[in-house]
Design goal:
279 residues; mainly alpha; MetI-like fold; 75% helix
């Protein structure tokens, strides 16, 4: 039995290694081509840079100049960080209320959040664009924060509700007996316990918002370009694309989110296995 388990474990390890190579290969190809001359990327996309094809940092310099990357980076950081903070705070409070207050209203709210995960974005994007225009949410990137809260609330509330249910009610009752009001109980007791799940929700939403192209393009267009929109503008007329600059900007675009994920990935596991009672 132990031998069979060892063989099965080795097979799983080999499969995971193959999948890792498959998932990491596109990133490596982009990084490799970002240092090639633009004329050689299409002709030999899978070859390593050599003395003839190596272009140094020329692609990065041209990309930064053509896309105004630093400004777009600032807008992306502002939208992503602000949206994630609002989503984590609002959805964790909502999940706590829905889980602890058993009323018809809370049940309807929970079902509404669950239903929002089923509805495809394409069904509501034109209506959403009209509402955003009517409410003047398209006049500044801050309007995206409200929209991202709406689209990110479903999964986030669902995730928080599952964890809040595992928190012993006695902890909150003890806090109430010590004189804590509901708001104090949430921020002093519940939110620290929710930390692993909150970081998991933050990671998932940050990766989605940082890389999102469709929603910013629909709402704010080219008024305030986030990174995905700025990179898209490297595509010129008649389908011509500055592949060198685009590859370089893609590397700069994915680097922050990869670093963020690697720094916080341990919390995803904690968010799944952590218990409510802290000893």
């Amino acid at each position: 039995m132990r031998k069979k388990n060892k063989v099965f474990g080795n097979i799983i390890f080999c499969v995971m290694c193959v999948l890792s190579v498959v998932y990491l290969a596109p990133i490596f190809i982009i990084l490799m081509n970002s240092f090639k001359g633009k004329l050689y990327i299409s002709n030999a996309p899978f070859e390593l840079p050599n003395a003839k094809t190596f272009a140094g940092l020329v692609n990065y310099v041209e990309g930064l100049a053509k896309t105004n990357f630093l400004q777009s980076f600032g807008w992306s950081v502002f939208v992503t960080v602000s949206s994630v903070l609002v989503i984590v705070l609002c959805t964790s409070m909502t999940a706590w209320y829905i889980t602890r207050v058993k009323t018809r209203t809370s049940e309807i709210l929970y079902l509404s959040f669950a239903f929002s995960m089923i509805v495809p974005f394409q069904m509501v994007m034109f209506t959403m664009s009209k509402v955003a225009n009517t409410l003047h949410l398209d006049s500044h990137p801050a309007g995206l924060i409200v929209i991202y809260l709406g689209f990110g609330a479903g999964l986030s509330v669902f995730t928080f509700c599952g964890f809040v249910k595992s928190i012993p009610l006695e902890i909150e009752e003890a806090a109430m007996m010590d004189g804590c009001k509901p708001v104090q109980t949430f921020f002093s007791i519940i939110l620290p316990i929710l930390r692993p799940t909150a970081i998991t929700v933050a990671i998932l939403n940050a990766m989605w918002i940082w890389n999102d192209y469709l929603l910013p393009n629909l709402v704010i267009g080219n008024k305030f370009k986030t990174i995905p929109i700025a990179i898209q503008y490297l595509k010129a007329g008649y389908g011509s694309i500055d592949m060198g600059a685009m590859m370089a900007m893609l590397v700069l675009a994915i680097t922050p989110i990869i670093i963020f994920y690697l720094a916080c990935q341990k919390y995803i596991i904690k968010g799944v296995v952590a218990g409510a009672v802290k000893g």
